[in-house]
């Protein structure tokens, strides 16, 4: 991999323990940047293989698990070293750390895993998914800048682009249907538009974005492509398909335990380094710092993400197929009648299926609430809760919950029905046990108008 130069160091390093107070730079006195130890990833390669090839961080005393570096600040052996660290001569690539808001060894290890997972040069982990999204956009866009974004987005992201950025940052957004390539092309204002932003699989409508084509359109006009891949880790690898930056809410599938809030930015070394610049870096100056103990927890979960995702996706496929046969109106990209089925099949990583989420369109909020109430309180099929990626099935009526920031017109344009029930399919229990619980609840509430034939 080519050498990466930065005034403040890189973020996924080979690292070494300092053996003494001196910091040997070689005969010429020049600090040599170490190459990133993120393995080259071929298009189509299983992300699990890339994770297995990434550097393994051992514990300080030889433990198979890394040690947690919980320090907020770090000591130096010589006074001159601190000056050199602040000037950018010495950094985490040589195992010199200043302060954990800047770089922390344990968080950097998680970043290496995220970069390997997404096949990017580097990554940086943050305190939440929204902090990752907002920091990237603020780094790429200045006052007066413009974003082109998908109409179908998580409600929080939609609110950030619709309300907060115009008011606080003078950054405007044009929302388009990303399936309409001509509309995307026409929305880009050359010289002003800085970012094309969309979700690989949209929240909650499960529309699949054509990452290669959208990236080509954006790059032809000099626009950076930022993709939220929260719904499809392992299933899709946007950076390998042409995207520049991939963001995640690690809180979801990657964590898997519904007990951690975290985010990640995966992309070029130059971008992530710029985000940590002492004078202009959005991450450095806004400070959405991940706690080292959280990073340790997450780094222990990523190795079995591939196993979990395969089961999430397998059960979602089985349930979607059976629900459709019962006459329910099911939205799931794995079904052949889904308009994006072929697209996802062509882009997706082999053996990971079509995602762990499905939607049932009950048409009205009342019907949606009746269904969820019985599924939780009568048959114990799942829980009424937002978020996704948990081992239990989580259900929510998107229009009145995770997409409530959008007005009625915006929801209609995004394809969000008032009765759309988003289900994150879990893997606890046996498949047949959980399916029996679904049928048990459904039998209690069937009546005229409940089953909407596809």
TrEMBL record:
- Gene Ontology BP annotations: transsulfuration
Entry keywords, A to Z: Pyridoxal phosphate
Q: Which SUPFAM superfamilies does its entry note?
A: PLP-dependent transferases
Species the sequence originates in: Tripterygium wilfordii (Thunder God vine)
Q: Which molecular function GO terms apply here?
A: carbon-sulfur lyase activity; pyridoxal phosphate binding
Residues bearing N6-(pyridoxal phosphate)lysine?
Answer: 252
Q: Which cofactor does it need?
A: pyridoxal 5'-phosphate
Annotated stretches, region: Disordered = 1-28
What is the recorded name of this protein? Putative cystathionine gamma-synthase
Annotated Gene Ontology cellular component terms: cytoplasm
Highest taxon of the source?
Answer: Eukaryota
Q: Which family does it belong to?
A: Belongs to the trans-sulfuration enzymes family.
């Amino acid at each position: 991999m080519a050498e990466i130069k930065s005034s403040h160091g890189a973020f996924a390093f080979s690292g070494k323990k300092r053996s003494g107070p001196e910091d040997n730079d070689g005969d010429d006195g020049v600090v040599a940047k170490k190459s990133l130890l993120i393995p080259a990833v071929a298009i189509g390669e299983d992300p699990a293989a890339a994770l297995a090839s990434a550097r393994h961080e051992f514990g300080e005393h030889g433990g198979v698990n890394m040690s947690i570096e919980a320090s907020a600040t770090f000591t130096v052996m010589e006074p001159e070293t601190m000056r050199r660290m602040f000037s950018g001569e010495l950094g985490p690539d040589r195992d010199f750390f200043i302060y954990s808001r800047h770089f922390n060894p344990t968080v950097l290890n998680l970043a290496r895993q995220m970069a390997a997972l997404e096949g990017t040069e580097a990554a940086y982990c943050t305190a939440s998914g929204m902090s990752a999204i907002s920091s990237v956009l603020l780094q790429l866009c200045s006052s007066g800048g413009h974003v082109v974004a998908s109409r179908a987005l998580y409600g929080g992201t939609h609110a950030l682009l619709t309300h907060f950025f115009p008011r606080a940052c003078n950054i405007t957004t044009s929302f388009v249907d990303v399936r309409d390539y001509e509309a995307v092309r026409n929305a880009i204002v050359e010289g002003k538009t800085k970012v094309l932003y969309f979700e690989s699989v949209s929240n909650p409508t499960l529309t699949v974005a054509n990452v290669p084509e959208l990236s080509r359109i954006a790059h032809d006009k000099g626009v950076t492509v930022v993709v939220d891949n929260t719904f499809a880790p392992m299933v899709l690898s946007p950076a390998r398909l042409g995207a520049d930056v991939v963001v995640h809410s690690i809180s979801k599938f990657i964590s898997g335990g519904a007990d951690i809030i975290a985010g990640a930015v995966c992309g070029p070394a130059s971008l992530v380094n710029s985000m940590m610049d002492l004078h202009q870096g959005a991450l450095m100056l806004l400070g959405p710092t991940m706690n080292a103990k959280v990073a340790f927890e997450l780094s222990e979960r990523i190795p079995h993400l591939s196993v979990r995702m395969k089961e999430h996706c397998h059960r979602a496929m089985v349930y979607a197929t059976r629900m459709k046969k019962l006459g329910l109106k099911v939205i799931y990209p794995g079904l052949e009648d889904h308009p994006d089925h072929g697209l996802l099949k062509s882009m997706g990583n082999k053996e990971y299926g079509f995602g762990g989420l499905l939607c049932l369109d009950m048409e009205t909020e009342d019907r949606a609430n009746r269904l969820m109430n019985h599924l939780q309180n009568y048959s114990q099929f799942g829980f009424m809760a937002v978020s996704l990626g948990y081992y239990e099935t989580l259900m929510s009526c998107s229009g009145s919950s995770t997409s409530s920031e959008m007005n009625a017109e915006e929801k209609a344009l995004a394809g969000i029905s008032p009765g759309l029930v988003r289900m994150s399919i879990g893997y606890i229990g046996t498949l047949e046990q959980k399916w029996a619980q679904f049928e048990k609840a459904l039998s209690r509430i069937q009546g005229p108008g409940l089953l909407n034939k596809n």
